[in-house]
Amino acid sequence: MAVFQHITQSVRVLLIALLSVPVFAGLVGVVLPAFGYFPALNAFDFNLGVFKHLFALESIVNMTLLSLLTGLIATALSVASAFLLLSVFYRSSYLNRLQSWLSPLLVLPHAAAAIALLFVLSPSGLLASVVSNAVSVFSSGAENLSNTQNVLPPMWEFPYDRFGISIIVALALKELPFVFLIAVSVLSQPQVKRKFDGYFNSATALGYAPVTVFFKAIFPVVYSQVRLPLLAVLAYATANVEIPLLLGPNNPPTLAVAVVQWFNHVDLSMRFQASAAALLQVVVTLIAIGIWLIGENIIERVQGRFYTNGSRYTGQMFASFVAYSVVASYSLLALSIIISTTLWSVATFWTFPTLLPEGFTLLHWKTTLSALAEPVKNTVLLATFVSAFSVLIATLALEAEALNRQDNKRSEYFNRWVGGVLASTLFLPLLVPGVAFLYGLVWFQLTYFNDAVWLHLFISHLVYVLPYVFISLAVAYRKFEPRYIQVAYGMGKSPWQVFVHIKLPLLFAPLLVAFALGVAISFSQYLPTVLSTGGRIATVTTEAVAAASGSSVRLTAVYVLVQIFMPLVGFVLAWWLPTICFNPMGRYTLLRPRKSKL
């Protein structure tokens, strides 16, 4: 085995360690205080007293149900909407446009999405202003429009409603692009596409409607391949902190928000209760996953009648109505968010229900940008190093996987075992709630590396960035044309020469997209940044959440636009650079119209 192959195999094992060790160490750091053992607070006895105190809280049931139900309903809505969109627009020219429209929303941080929704859907937001002006015009005539100056905002419960509807709406809107795009990535795989084309052509020739064909022949195959990412979405939705913190009820909050509040309490003894609640959050996430799997089994048992009823138009009208409604609502909401956020960022004085501010100024931008110099520098440096390291590790691990296919049978069992462990480990940080292991991880970091703040921050971001970078890069790496490699080996080239001179130039575009995705994921991290640094290092996201909690609306709007703009720059560069690097003809093909992949 060559030196290069040894290095790639070692990196593959290193990747497993980088993802699993922080999670397990963090869980241990939470489990011990939950059972009463915390040497830093002179607690050395294991007992169940902390759990008894936690379950004696009056609001613990409400907090638990709020986390469970909001996560389940939001995930179900996003999955149902995504597959209804695919069923209606599959093999349509609109599918590629939808993919282009939804892709930028994928990089929008959760905190920025929650703040932007406040500008549109709050009682004094843009929607309420439009409705109030419309009602006034239709009821009193256009000449009395000036009377709306004294109208008070309506008293609806968005945000901060006690049922968590605002959380469900925000989570569903944010997760829909992810579910849609990951399903499209499966549908666009060449082998899968050829098989589905055959199903589709045969079924439509027999008179089946496109939506019926999709749900009877294509959906079962696609769903089985995106099932694990969907469970990761469900786990994230049940334990999310940013959106419930900004849009959810305060008394009681969701369980994840309560855990954060108890961990940050000035009374250090609250760490015991917070640790027990963090473990309860793990149980809530497992219950949500269990309910989801039970729902899958129930649907699987009753779907036989759907497949054999012979109906050729089942769900066609309903799916079309819902899909077009989702597209219209999403487009209207996205346009409203852009308009209201941009206007708030340059507004001087703007009262409800006037549709435009009294004047415009760039003072908020000057104030915010001068204050954001240090957070922007921290954010960009951290995201660059974490993403570059993640791309390097993921590339070498995927190269090890490719080289293993050419290896002898002696190490076949070991390689298969490592591959299985790696596939399971990739989703470990996404399936285990962050509040359940990040606090324990911080405890370990402070115990053994108290002064290495940047190292803590780097590792906390790495456990979230690395899985997404690997998954993004794996699709292109595994579809790499093997004949290029065979020709190079036939000319006597070594694996290292093939990797450097053939694979890296040809995979330049996917490498940049994976890097840009890593940057976007790092930009959006709020909880890992706050916990691992204790507030000593500020990023744009932490400053945006802090601004939304008590600062000016106008300054908050600037923070949101900066959060949206920064990851978009990375993706624009990832799209543009491959057209001029390692691709001399790219500049000429750039202007050609794109064809749908499906």
From TrEMBL:
<feature type="transmembrane region" description="Helical">
    <location>
        <begin position="60"/>
        <end position="89"/>
    </location>
</feature>
<comment type="similarity">
    <text>Belongs to the binding-protein-dependent transport system permease family.</text>
</comment>
<keyword id="KW-0472">Membrane</keyword>
<feature type="transmembrane region" description="Helical">
    <location>
        <begin position="272"/>
        <end position="295"/>
    </location>
</feature>
<protein>
    <submittedName>
        <fullName>ABC transporter permease</fullName>
    </submittedName>
</protein>
<keyword id="KW-0812">Transmembrane</keyword>
<keyword id="KW-0813">Transport</keyword>
<feature type="domain" description="ABC transmembrane type-1">
    <location>
        <begin position="376"/>
        <end position="574"/>
    </location>
</feature>
<feature type="transmembrane region" description="Helical">
    <location>
        <begin position="498"/>
        <end position="523"/>
    </location>
</feature>
<feature type="transmembrane region" description="Helical">
    <location>
        <begin position="12"/>
        <end position="40"/>
    </location>
</feature>
<feature type="transmembrane region" description="Helical">
    <location>
        <begin position="379"/>
        <end position="398"/>
    </location>
</feature>
<feature type="transmembrane region" description="Helical">
    <location>
        <begin position="418"/>
        <end position="441"/>
    </location>
</feature>
<dbReference type="InterPro" id="IPR000515">
    <property type="entry name" value="MetI-like"/>
</dbReference>
<feature type="transmembrane region" description="Helical">
    <location>
        <begin position="557"/>
        <end position="577"/>
    </location>
</feature>
<dbReference type="GO" id="GO:0055085">
    <property type="term" value="P:transmembrane transport"/>
</dbReference>
<keyword id="KW-1133">Transmembrane helix</keyword>
<dbReference type="GO" id="GO:0005886">
    <property type="term" value="C:plasma membrane"/>
</dbReference>
<feature type="domain" description="ABC transmembrane type-1">
    <location>
        <begin position="60"/>
        <end position="292"/>
    </location>
</feature>
<dbReference type="InterPro" id="IPR035906">
    <property type="entry name" value="MetI-like_sf"/>
</dbReference>
<feature type="transmembrane region" description="Helical">
    <location>
        <begin position="101"/>
        <end position="121"/>
    </location>
</feature>
<feature type="transmembrane region" description="Helical">
    <location>
        <begin position="453"/>
        <end position="477"/>
    </location>
</feature>
<feature type="transmembrane region" description="Helical">
    <location>
        <begin position="321"/>
        <end position="347"/>
    </location>
</feature>
<dbReference type="Pfam" id="PF00528">
    <property type="entry name" value="BPD_transp_1"/>
</dbReference>
<feature type="transmembrane region" description="Helical">
    <location>
        <begin position="163"/>
        <end position="187"/>
    </location>
</feature>
<keyword id="KW-1003">Cell membrane</keyword>
<feature type="transmembrane region" description="Helical">
    <location>
        <begin position="199"/>
        <end position="223"/>
    </location>
</feature>
